[in-house]
Amino acid sequence: MLSKLSTGKSIEPLFFERQYVVTNMTEAGVKLLYLAYQKRGAMENLIKESKAGFFMDKTNSHSFTANAARATISGIAYNLIALMKLMALPKEQRNTTISTLRFQIFHVAGKLARHAGKIIIHLAQSNVFSQQIEALLANIHTLSPLVTN
Fold it and tell me: What is this structure's pTM?
């Protein structure tokens, strides 16, 4: 069965984007099939990001336990970043991939210094993404604590 569904998006004035799903699932309707395959594509993108951004595909140890621990740590990191995206990033940045976030937020030149018994982080002032970092930190500071005493 060849299911055809037009998204109706106009690419150019005379052309429309057409998407096709080839399947042998004849009992399902076209719209149901299209929605199922859309969700499958979204999940494949999440899996790709977890492999590329969090290195979940790295199993370079001969020990099952070490590989399981590494995958668990990668899963925790993925969930923490997903939570940060949801709670602290503006809506227009919530679909940002981890590689973009890592470049914009975590790759900031700086140095650690000790002064009066305190550790101080001096960040570069010429960072292109400093406004985004400041907005992210401000959003994090406005979050209420999960546990109150």
Answer: 0.60
